[in-house]
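for the writeup, i need someone to sanity check this before i put it in the appendix. the sequnce is what the collaborator sent (i think, or maybe the updated version? ugh). structure was predicted straight from it, no edits. if anything looks off just tell me and ill rerun, i have time this weekend
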Amino acid sequence: MRKILVIATLMVCVLCSLPSGGSSAGQEKSVAVKTAATDGVFKVTIATGGGLYGPVKSRFKVGEDVPVVISMTNTGDKPAKYCLSTSVFQNRPQMRKDGQLLPYLSSLSQQADKEDAIEQCERSQSRQLYDLQPNETKVVDWFKISAMGIAWYELLSAGHYELVLMRRVECCQGALLESNKVAFEVVP
């Protein structure tokens, strides 16, 4: 277990040290390879809050972390496998403020889509496969929109936000499934 944590920590350190960029180009590209969340076997659902974070909520203060809880439902009639690897490989949040797509704070997601990073992820022992039974819904992952950990976006200022998550079911590569859209407010 300790070895897995060390490997995961090293991967995050390497990926976080890559050069940053402030473009939404990577987000637009990931939208181009998406499939609808209801296609195939899995449906992806997100909520701001819930799970370990208490009740779902839609109002946050400037500077407050926005927890995003990810659930998946097996809509098929047979058990299906999904993977948990790392947030950088599996999640591509798409956030809009007042209708405008917000750029990622860094090029981390673009770096994770490169062949050598994918190969390293595929060899990682941190990848775990899980079964989801027919018609079962389970909280499978979470991340925070915050300045700590993976900083997807700059500090959120006051305004109206909409978030959709592009979620990869495979460990390190493959199609992205589109979640539902959640709306929330950030207030002073």
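The longest strand covers residues 176-187. Residues 1-39 have pLDDT under 50 and may be disordered.
thx in advance!!
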